[in-house]
Amino acid sequence: MLAYEDVGIRFGGNQAVQGVTGSITPGIITAIIGPNGAGKSTFFNLLSGFYKPTSGRIIFEGQDITRLPTHEVVALGIARTFQTTTIYKELSALENAVLGHRVRTKSGLWDALLGTGRERREGKASLDAAYTALKRVGLEQQAHVLAGNLTQEAQKRVSIALALATNPKILLLDEPAAGINPEETVNLTRTIRELAAGGLTVVLIEHKMSMIMTLADHIMVLHHGQKIAEGSPAQVSRDPAVIEAYLGGHAAPHVREELKADLEQEAARLGSQHA
Questions:
Q1: Buried/exposed code over 175-206 (b: 16+ C-beta within 10 A; e: otherwise)
Q2: CA nearest neighbour of 26 among 202, 215, 144, 230
């Protein structure tokens, strides 16, 4: 569905991502994890067209999208959210979601000024798509509330709804649970799982390991911009390279064992939930 071949990007003398090869399996939840500065968000920016790689290529459904502008990548079916909630707080939740669907419309300035039939048809289609997106994230009852008046968790959901309104095939979520409390994290995890169960391919970056271990079907680990591990939550949780990346070579052995135990416990819990 989405493949990346020897992808890398350099900023001046800094190799932020280097030689990453792999693919995203359709219909599952893939997590990308790694310590701070591992290159996770940069990699997301490459997949979504915000950055252009200095090496390698990105293929989506058989088409090379490496050099496509961002809006064309979105139109093909790849949407993303950001670490910092990027919504218009002075607009309602519905108006934010409508903006997302506009990538699917063709009306221009003259259509708007003249009130053409195309503008009316596409305006209704955008409203319908926006309501549907808000319903998918559980915000249909708050559609007309200003986004700035919503809770932090609800604003996260508006951001996801804006992405969903583009009608994506792949949804990239960059730290969706950042800044929200444990109960809100559980609720958001449930929503993401429901989106995937509905057929959407989800890829996320997240630092909350308990969330990742209970949510992801597949995990890729980046460190210093390179892929160091990949596999199921259980496989990744036992990988010595992953533990080394998170704690470093000078970490006390008992601390490393505690982290390994924590990761394995989360993986076991995930296995029991799917049994």
A1: bbbbebeeebbeebbebbeebbeeebbbbbbb
A2: 202
Domain boundary (139, 166, 193) is at 166
Write the pLDDT tens digit of every residue in 169-195. Answer: 999 999 999 889 999 999 999 999 999
Average pLDDT on 197-218 reads 91
Q: Which domain holds residue 111?
A: 89-166
pLDDT digits (tens, 9 = 90+) for 114-126: 567 655 666 678 8
Q: Which residue has the higher pLDDT, 80 or 109?
A: 80
Instruction: Pull the structure tokens for residue 184.
Output: 């809100």
Q: What is the pLDDT of residues 249-259, one digit of tens each?
A: 544 454 445 55
Question: Are residues 177 and 154 part of one domain?
Answer: no
